[in-house]
Amino acid sequence: MPPAFSSEEKARITQLLLKNGYELFTRRGLRKTSLEELVAPTGMAKSSFYQFFDSKEALYLELMLHETGTIKKKVIENALHATDDTRDALRRFLRATLDELSTNPLWRRLMTHPEEMTAVARKADPQRAAAMSDNPATALIHYITEKHRDGELVDADPDVIVGVLQTVLLVPLYAERLGNPADYPKILDLLIDIITAGLVQSRH
């Protein structure tokens, strides 16, 4: 029978599991991370893990939900919705998101391995997994749909416009193929300016 833990021990072990899970999931991914590896820093038996999380997917979901809330504030509230100018809003969104992808390893992992998000949603508690629907990608779709309806954007399907914006977010994966590394920031800035100018209807 797994040992009982005091509330202080549970809080300490939960933080250890979250910290170790963050490191392992960002480095190795969901599938290659084992329960043995997750519990190793805690010193407890593998079977005791289930007193804290229903599965490793549930642990991953906790990390994802925390990241989503933080990133939504940065890229949606403080960037996309920080201005009434549509072109400037899209520029801010792209730059803020690219900054997160370069500095936030778990978010980068989720963006480059979407199958892991699907695996988590499939196995985790449905109510908790449903909370993932309130994320930056969904907020962007709502924003684009609204601006398209208002005639602010070019005459293209909103899903296509979102796809164009998401394409820009893939550029960092191929940064080393873009020539002189010193030119990369300028390349990215010019690409963002060209894309956002091309998506927003001219007022002239």
Describe this structure in words.
The chain is mainly alpha-helical. It is built from ten helices and no strands. The protein has helices at residues 7-28, 35-39, 56-80, 86-103, 105-112, 114-123, 126-130, 136-149, 158-168, 184-199. The longest helix has 25 residues, at 56-80. The chain is elongated, with a radius of gyration of 20 Å. The N and C termini lie far apart (74 Å).
Number of strands: 0
| Rounded mean pLDDT score | 89
Helix content estimate: 55-70%
**SSE class:** mainly alpha
Radius of gyration (Å)? 20 Å
CATH homologous superfamily classification of the largest domain: Tetracycline Repressor, domain 2
How do the helices and strands follow one another from N- to C-terminus? Answer: HHHHHHHHHH
Instruction: Please name the CATH topology of the largest domain.
Output: Tetracycline Repressor, domain 2
Strand content: under 5%
**Main sheet, how many strands, which sense, barrel?**
none
Q: Uncertain spans, ≥5 residues at pLDDT below 50?
A: none
The CATH class of the largest domain is: Mainly Alpha
Structurally, the number of domains stands at 2
User: Between the first and last Cα atoms, what is the distance in angstroms?
Assistant: 74 Å
Total helices: the number is: 10
Give a quick set of tags describing it.
mainly alpha, 204 residues, 66% helix, 10 helices, single chain, Tetracycline Repressor, domain 2, 2 domains, Arc Repressor Mutant, subunit A
